[in-house]
Specification:
By secondary structure, the protein is an alpha+beta fold. The protein has 13 helices and 16 strands. Helices cover about 35% and strands about 25% of the residues. The two termini are about 15 Å apart.
């Protein structure tokens, strides 16, 4: 059986996949670079002709790939009023670590790439995608994915779609009688651009990892590892207005349950329909992402606090959600339970959410668990 991987070969994700495939007794996978495909330096046809299973890995953390997607998205009809950069200017775009810009254009470039890839794959009926392109694209559009879950009776936080700007946000929050919300860029990941926003009387507050850098001539947004609190309505309006151009999903802020050390949610990796590796993400701030300096909590402590039945409910909700996604073998599901312990919610579905180094079940990490599932399915 031959596996093929499309990814950024220098990235640790690719190394984990290669090791997982070999550990299950298969020959080393073919590894195809995103950049080589984008720059037409590789002919995919002879590779696909020999491929049984294809994994599409995260394209992140590679500036050249990022710029190539910007070029692919430059003339997309869905770009509309989002901030954009023309083809000629992409090559002059300076690398600014963590800069939040052109989110929609980048996403549309990625979608274009995936659609072009699907056309090639369609020529080879024997190729099985470990996660379908349709599923990946759905998970990378938070509004579409939220609507999908609502339609399939998966419990998610109530949400507002198509918020135009800060004034529109305030108006719709008043109509819903919501005082606190999470604002999420539709095409962001790893808490990029996420804002926990609340209103108290005439005062407003935004808690976020977004850093607003201003000078006399410009204002820029950056992802930061430091959580910041903004109380100035003009600054908050600038943040919301800038992100709204790229598209935002606004969810009602439902308080999460707590254990000693802060509130928590769970990253549950569902593989082959079953919840496998789980990480408790614990935080003193509204954002629980581990790269923001938050702590991995104790699974045993969470089970003790919420009870085994509630834990099972969260696990089953994650499994049920993934089952609705088109041809998705694995996904990282972010799941919370309310502070009353009465109701669980899906917060997000992550197409590349299985990067949980050193989290083992039966001495297997997430990548090995996925290959093992395929192996057992093939040889059952």
């Amino acid at each position: 059986m031959q596996f093929t991987l499309i990814g950024n070969p220098e990235n640790r994700r690719c190394q984990y996949f290669i090791e997982a495939v070999k550990s299950q007794g298969f020959t080393a996978p073919f590894v195809v670079s995103y950049l080589d495909v984008l720059q037409q330096k590789v002919d995919l046809h002879p590779i696909l002709a020999q491929t049984n299973y294809l994994r599409i890995e995260s394209p992140g953390e590679n500036w050249a790939v990022h710029c190539a997607f910007l070029k692919l998205g430059a003339h997309h009809p869905d770009l509309r009023n989002a901030d954009s950069i023309d083809l000629e200017s992409v090559d002059q775009l300076p690398f600014e670590k963590g800069r939040i810009q052109f989110l929609k254009q980048h996403h549309l470039g990625f979608v274009t790439f995936l659609n072009q890839l699907q056309q090639k794959i369609d020529l080879y009926p024997t190729v099985q995608l470990i996660n379908s392109i349709e599923g990946i694209q759905l998970m990378f559009d938070k509004t579409s994915c939220h609507q999908h879950f609502v339609e399939h009776n998966i419990t998610v936080a109530p949400a507002l779609y198509h918020i135009k700007n800060y004034d529109d946000l305030l108006t719709q929050m008043r109509q819903q009688q919501w005082r606190s919300v999470f604002i999420k860029p539709i095409h962001g990941s790893s808490a990029s651009g996420v804002i926990a926003f609340r209103i108290k009387g005439s005062k407003v507050q935004a808690i976020t990892s977004v850093e607003l850098v201003q000078n006399a001539t410009s204002a820029k947004l950056f992802n930061s590892l430091k959580i910041r609190t903004y109380n100035n309505s003009k600054e908050i309006a600038y943040l919301v207005n800038t992100l709204a151009k790229e598209g935002i999903l606004v969810e009602q802020w439902i308080p999460k349950a707590s254990v000693e050390g802060g509130t928590f949610d769970l990253r549950m990796v569902v593989i082959g329909g079953k919840t496998k590796q789980v990480v408790v993400r614990q935080s003193q701030s509204p954002m629980t992402n581990l790269h923001l300096g938050n702590q991995r909590g104790s699974i045993q402590e969470v089970k003790r606090i919420i009870g085994f039945d509630k834990w099972q409910q969260m696990s089953h909700l994650a499994e049920k959600a993934v089952a609705t996604l088109p041809n998705t073998t694995y996904a990282g599901m972010d799941v919370m339970i309310s502070n009353t312990l009465k109701k669980s919610y899906i917060l997000e579905a992550n197409a590349f959410g299985d990067l949980l180094p050193n989290v083992l079940i039966n001495n297997m990490d997430t990548y090995t668990s996925t290959i093992n599932y395929i192996k057992e399915k093939e040889y059952a």
